Amino acid sequence: MQNISEEIATDNSFNIVNILLIDHGYLKECIDVLIRDHSDLQEKLFYSRTFLDTLKKHSISEEKTVYDSLVDMDEFRKNILEGEIEHDMISKKYRFLIPRIAQMKSLDDVTEIEIKVLAKLVKQHIEEEEKVLFPKMRNNLDSAILNEIGFQFMIMRRFTPQDLENYPDLQKEVYASTIDKRPVGTRNVYRWSASFVRKVNGYISSMVGQSGYIKN
């Protein structure tokens, strides 16, 4: 019988490159709206909020899983250092904009331009990853490593079922078919599938066991 690490390593639905492209796809959809000069301002406000929220979740999760895993590998070091510098520039801007936009009922001219500039920077960053880093990861990393990093990202990123609606196999893997909801007006609570919970618990336990802090 496979142990939990082997089970994750052989599950290609967790391939990190494919999972990162989920966020990239939505971010590019937002960018298309945010960089247009004549988009409706209310539409831009909506996309600004979801763009910044997705960008924050994606960036933090990518740094803690992908970047931390690859930065010490010689073939990836310069790519990761470049990505980290770009992330630092991007994070300073979204941390400034998120609370400001949360209070807005419509975009003012200055904020609209700030969002546009940020969107262009993120567009360039995404294109660089997809043209250079992702192919290098596919070519140089074993599928088991790609799957394990992807599993770590899934734990941290916490996609909602709606985030995964165009990825039914992954949605089924992560979420139970029945979605529990709180009363109207409060946030929905989504139940992870029993299989995914088992994998998460087993994986965390195995990592703790390997850390040296627990003695047999």
Structure in words:
The protein is mostly helical. The chain has one domain (4-210): Four Helix Bundle (Hemerythrin (Met), subunit A) (Up-down Bundle), CATH 1.20.120. The chain has 8 helices and no strands. It has helices at 4-9, 16-34, 41-70, 77-102, 109-140, 143-157, 168-174, 194-210. The chain is globular and about 55 Å long. The relative contact order is 0.15.
At a glance:
This protein has 216 residues and is an all-alpha fold. It has eight helices and no strands. The protein has a single domain (4-210), classed as Four Helix Bundle (Hemerythrin (Met), subunit A) (Up-down Bundle), CATH 1.20.120.
Descriptive keywords:
216 residues; Four Helix Bundle (Hemerythrin (Met), subunit A); mainly alpha; disordered C terminus
